[in-house]
């Protein structure tokens, strides 16, 4: 009988402890969370200021690129066009780059102390009085150097031609395009069945000429 009483007492104590755990009155459980994988450093471009759609137009060949890089793991290095940039405080990084006339792609790569990398790119267009105009096609997409598919016999072509000298004339397949004061142009161009090469030519007031070509396939 005494043994039965002791067994019942032990069982009651265990049951009471179990209740305490279920009710949350026991010592709290420690939950250890692993750090989520880093997405790479955060990049903020300070100079130059972008003018819509990741593009900026400048008048000097030598440009200073300034970027802020931040990461909880710390920044290991920042490359600007594959060249290690300078920094005074480990947060703001800067480098000077030389541009060619026309459109230039600038690449910024930042790596944190754990090897996570973020890469950002943007375009800088350098306009020079000695350089030919810079042509940018906005319609149709995706634009130059690629083939566009169309089921229509006429396609609308739009874009911009830029020059410090001012644009005098834009033609598409020798057809004169409508040209606005800001350099934007447009034209309706007839398409033959099959592949069509569309050649855009822009001439500035000094006689400098640039051409750009893309292809449209009419089904």
Layout of SSEs?
Blueprint lengths: L1 H22 L18 E6 L7 E4 L3 E9 L4 E6 L2 E2 L1 E2 L4 E7 L3 E11 L4 E10 L7 E6 L7 E4 L3 E9 L4 E6 L2 E2 L1 E2 L4 E7 L3 E11 L4 E10 L1
Parallel strand pairs: 2-9, 11-18
Antiparallel strand pairs: 1-3, 3-7, 4-5, 4-8, 6-7, 8-9, 10-12, 12-16, 13-14, 13-17, 15-16, 17-18
Structural notes for this entry:
The protein has one helix spanning 2-23, and strands at residues 42-47, 55-58, 62-70, 75-80, 83-84, 86-87, 92-98, 102-112, 117-126, 134-139, 147-150, 154-162, 167-172, 175-176, 178-179, 184-190, 194-204, 209-218. The chain has 219 residues and is mainly beta. It has two domains: 42-126, Immunoglobulin-like, CATH 2.60.40.10; 134-218, Immunoglobulins (Immunoglobulin-like, Sandwich), CATH 2.60.40. The strands form four sheets. It has a five-stranded mixed beta sheet, with no helix packed on it. Strands 11-18-17-13-14 form a five-stranded mixed beta sheet, with no helix packed on it.
